[in-house]
Amino acid sequence: MVGSSVDDVLEEVAGLLRARGERMTGPRRAVVSALARQTDHVSADALVTLVAEQDAGVHRASVYRTLDALSDLGVVQHVHVGHGATTYHLVRPEERHLHAHCRICGSVQDLPSDLLDDVATMLAEEHGFVLDAGHVALSGTCRRCQRVAHS
After folding, report:
1. pLDDT value at position 48?
2. Under a CB-based contact definition with an 8 Å cutoff, are residues 67 and 32 in contact?
3. Spatial CA neighbour of 42 closest among 107, 104, 111
4. Which of 50, 55, 76, 150 has the fewest CB atoms within 10 Å around its CB?
């Protein structure tokens, strides 16, 4: 959905909701619109603020419920970054990807979805563990912060 217009995203999500027998409510429209305008990953608290700027009548709890519903629908990917914080962004199911989180500046970078395939295979074969790395970010230090630290 990255690069799509807000109206196109709203139409696509509304269609997916209808296909599940659900509808595009006012709060859902406000949350999807706010997410569609973002170019970065956004926290739920920041999203509450963005939605309130659009529609002051949307309650915080509605934003959280909408994020859960949109995650279940597969159009919002949530990612746990550092110390339990969670960020959100719009995504098509085929666009799901992994993330890296800089522990110094807090930036979140998108990574290829197949980056940990070899690790996942090894974990499954040797330990019977099925890896689901899409909901957590790898923690480390970004290039910019490394440069600053070494200057």
Report:
1. 96
2. no
3. 107
4. 150
Domain of 78 in residue numbering reads as 1-95
The model's pTM: 0.81
Residues 111 and 90 placed together within one structural domain of the fold: no
Quote the CA–CA distance of 47 and 58 in Å, as a whole number.
Answer: 11
pLDDT tens digits, residue range 91-110?
877 788 899 999 999 888 99
Q: Inter-axis angle of helices 60-73 and 6-19, to 10 degrees? A: 70
Count Cβ neighbours within 10 Å for each residue of 39-66 and write b for 16 or more, e otherwise. eebbebeebbebbbeeeeebeeebbeeb
What tens digit of pLDDT does each residue of 110-130 get?
999 999 999 999 999 999 999
Q: How far apart (Å, rounded) are the C-alpha atoms in residues 79 and 81?
A: 6
Task: Assess whether 3 and 64 both reside in one domain.
Answer: yes
Lateral strand order in the sheet of 42-43: 42-43, 85-90, 76-81
